[in-house]
Amino acid sequence: MTNAAESVADSEFEPNPEQRAVIEAAVGEWLLVVAGPGTGKTEVAAMRLVHLIRDGLQPAQILVLSFSRSAVATLTRRLAALRLADAGVVEDLRHLAIRTFDSWAFRILRQGGAAVSELLARQHDENIVAATAAFTDGTNAAIRERLAGIRHVIVDEFQDLPGVRAGMVIELLSRLNSGEHPVGFTVLGDPVQSIYRWAARSRGQQEPSDPWDDLKRRMGIGLREVQLTRNHRSTEKLASMATSLRKILQSDLLTAEKKLTAMQRFLERLPASSHEVKLGPDWLANLPEGTVAVLTRSNGEAVRVTKMLLGDSVEGPAVSVRLRVAGSQPIAPAWIAVLLSRFKPQVISRSTFEIVYQRAEEGLDPPDRALLGMPPRESAWRRLARASGAPERTTSIDLGDLRERLAWPDSFPDDQLSESAVVYVTTIHQAKGMEFDNVALLDSRPRDDAQLAEDPLEMANVGFVAVTRAGKALGRIPSECIYKAPYECVLPSGRSRFLSWGKLTNLQFGLPGDIDPVSFVDHEFHDGVEQVVAVQHELAARVAALRGHKVILTRIDAPHEKTRARDTRYEICLQEGDRQGLRLACTSQQVTTDLLDLLWDRRLSLPNKIFNLRIGEVISLAARGDVAPTVPQPWQSSRLWLGITLFGTGDFKTWKRNGK
Question: Structural domain boundaries of the chain?
């Protein structure tokens, strides 16, 4: 029989003996794979999946779980890059679902009969705990049936499952192997890259036990541990640095404090840019070849770095810059509304979809389709069918079901991210599972809002993770190169926004719910149907150009004096030069509420204008029930249209309410 590695045609990946031992292990084997950075973990996971399918497993029998959506996307891209000689395996891989732990917990509970409204109202951790309890209890027939179909589980980045997620995985693996037919698993990770134990401390919880040791104790002698040691990704110099640092972090002879001191000394010796020059757009004009990441310690620093790199330009930069911070939510891709927003019937047949897709295809150039992320016709149908809850081979899709489910975290695969960029700005924690050609580390500085005692070993591990994201070049940016970062402000509403005070108040906007979704197609707000058409056309035609484009928020006063402040909204307009351009939408009540909570007790008035916010993505929006009569056709019937997300911190002036 042809093995998995031999089924790859013209591939650059040739597994070494330790990698092959993982890839070609038996389907039912229990594997714990210690995979350091650059040792080919992602390639091994991809080829392990190929081997499982070649050994006879169906995609539905394999469960693949990973730590974050970016890590899921990395694995999916690696699978897509494999040039497989076996067309049947290629087709099976297309149907393989790779999920984050949070997304899968939501999905299994939903399939077990839990009310979606309750699941959406809960915190992720609450759903994880509920899923774990369902595995332990074993009385839910629907969940038992789902689990009974699993023959192999692959888990990535296991060392960083804080608390309840590690508990869910261990309980799942134990439950799957409690019957007559053992279920295999391949758990991958690296204890030296464990950097999320602070999460429990931040919530006032007891620090969790080591999931690595817990898994070994629970599964016992049947578990085989395999080490991947050879660094294939980095240059010889960077690989040697990583090996030396790894030895220090694994040493039993050094205290945690000494390990941290060694890491700090290493970081201080990295080549650095001038501390006298602030970051700005010029930094983007002198980029090395390949992808570049600026890695920070805090989300606030990442927000500040991104704002400084983008500078004063109204348009987005010539090179694609992506900001990734904690708390980002999955979005419905724009191609859905491009295809279906003008389709009025509530059910679309496969034959009608062919016509709709062809018309959209004819109206878009191939580059525009790529920028929209529009999949091929067959894939588009299957994704929409899955999202609506229908079988992939269905001959019709209920668009009401599709609209209802668009906001669900498991509606679309977790790898459907628009992540292609030249420069990424993110935290070290968010960069886990990601790879870059060049990495610049922002020097840490004391944080004003730091309240937790930091674990020196975990801080040393954070440094190791940062260093090992780089494949070709590694350097640092002195902390003096950026202005003071905004801090996280928790408001009475329970929402958190980044904030800094100064001559201009600097506040984060772009949280889920900040924009009134109906305002994109409300003809009263837009002063006519023609303007609604113009907005939807602009969003569809300029998906790429609008990413990073500045908007201006202008205050719209409510007509009634008694409720004027509370009912204030802000219109969101494209910025053209130094003036307002096309009106796109307006903010929601929660923006006004948070501004009032921030300013009112200080006797400050609401600002008239808010500047320097930017468009993140063009997205699809859906109304799950009836829409206002001010929404014209075809959107009144389709209840699907295009909208935007915002990102960054807006700048505004305010004044005392007595006029001074």
Answer: 5-228, 236-329+418-485, 334-405, 490-652
Task: Provide the angle, in degrees to the nearest 10, between the axes of the packed helices 124-137 and 164-176.
Answer: 20
Tens digit of each residue's pLDDT (9 = 90 or more) over 104-137: 899 899 989 999 888 888 888 899 999 999 988 8
Q: Which CATH class is domain 236-329+418-485?
A: alpha beta
12: left (phi over 0), alpha (psi -120 to 50) or beta: alpha
CA–CA distance, 248 with 253 (Å, rounded to integer): 9
SS3 73: helix
Structure tokens at 628: 């206002």
Residue 25 has which token pair? 């292990």
* Structure token digits, residue 594: 């948070």
Give this prediction's pTM: 0.85
Q: How confident is the model at residue 453 (pLDDT cuts 50, 70, 90)?
A: low
CB distance 383 to 402 below 8 Å: no
Identical fold between 5-228 and 236-329+418-485: yes
Q: What residues pair up with 646 in beta bridges, in sequence order?
A: 615
Helix (H, G, I), strand (E, B) or coil at 513: coil
Measured distance CA(479)–CA(465) in Å, rounded: 19
Highest averaged pLDDT of the listed ranges 88-97, 226-235, 407-416, 484-493: 484-493
